[in-house]
Design goal:
With 249 residues, the protein is mainly alpha-helical. The chain folds into two domains: 118 residues, Alpha Horseshoe (Serine Threonine Protein Phosphatase 5, Tetratricopeptide repeat); 72 residues, Serine Threonine Protein Phosphatase 5, Tetratricopeptide repeat (Alpha Horseshoe). Helices cover 76% and strands 2% of the residues. The chain is built from ten helices and two strands. A two-stranded parallel ribbon has the order 1-2. Helix 4 packs antiparallel against helix 5. It is flat, with a radius of gyration of 32 Å. The protein starts with a helix and ends with a helix.
């Protein structure tokens, strides 16, 4: 077959295909219109959601930052009243952006963290704010509230933040003299055998919890576990010292 004839056949095939496509489009114009509208609506919805999510993420980070600024502010005593020193440029009273005590700084940061966490509970910044809220509550001696806040971080968080929240929860329980719950929290962490967790440090905390609970036998077993399973750890020497103390008790 000559080249011109083959080309003519191809042109005819293309013309037939285009004609069939036009015919199908004409008979299905309503369906095509509906499909196009659906694509536009769905696409617009996705874009709108992404814009909303990005805006919410930005707002969540800004709310978290409001608490972080206070948490990292300087602690310093207020200056003498104006006019009472030989320095005419001295600013009297509390310097802007500073706090007279650690407690005052924590009490100022706490509502900022809580507001961020309550407003954006499912956002990473909101969950991080909840973690900082829990830490502040522990430092202020409000242990039961801290445990609840840590539980929210554990439920909604992941990775390092979630693991840190478990340790924080155990610390809050120990400081509240809730020894059995603290032991349960730490044992759960040990049993999980998470490679990213410092197993030796968790075991030391568990031994401490047993000791505070008055269970010296379990404390000794846990310390021995540190020595046997983590001989190269910096905690191994500390564990030996703690065992000696238990023997003298």
């Amino acid at each position: 077959m000559k080249h011109t004839e083959r080309q003519h056949l191809k042109d005819n095939e293309l013309a037939i295909a285009l004609g069939q496509a036009q015919s199908w489009a004409g008979s299905n114009s309503k369906n095509l219109t509906a499909i196009l509208i659906a694509i536009v609506v769905v696409g617009g919805g996705v874009l709108a959601y992404m814009a909303y999510r990005n805006n919410a993420d930005n707002n969540a980070r800004a709310a978290l930052a409001a608490g972080m600024v206070i948490e990292e502010a300087r602690v310093m005593p207020p200056g003498p009243p104006p006019g009472t020193t030989n320095d005419p440029t001295a600013v009297g009273g509390q310097a802007p952006g500073t706090y007279p005590t650690e407690k005052a700084r924590l009490e100022a940061a706490l509502p900022k963290f809580q507001a961020a966490a309550d407003a954006y509970p499912s956002h990473d910044a909101g969950i991080t704010a909840r973690y900082h809220q829990a830490k502040a509550l522990v430092a202020l001696g409000r242990f039961d509230e801290a445990v609840k806040a840590y539980d929210q971080v554990i439920a909604g968080g992941s990775g390092l933040l979630q693991r840190s929240a478990r340790l924080g929860k155990a610390e809050a329980q120990l400081r509240a003299a809730q020894y059995d719950p603290a032991i349960a929290t730490l044992k759960q962490m040990v049993d999980q055998k998470d490679a990213s967790l410092p197993a030796d440090a968790v075991l030391m905390e568990l031994a401490r919890a047993y000791r505070l609970a008055g269970n010296t036998e379990e404390a000794r077993k846990t310390l021995t576990q540190v020595i046997e399973q983590h001989a190269d750890s910096v905690y191994a020497t500390e564990a030996k010292t703690e065992i000696e103390k238990l023997g003298k008790a």
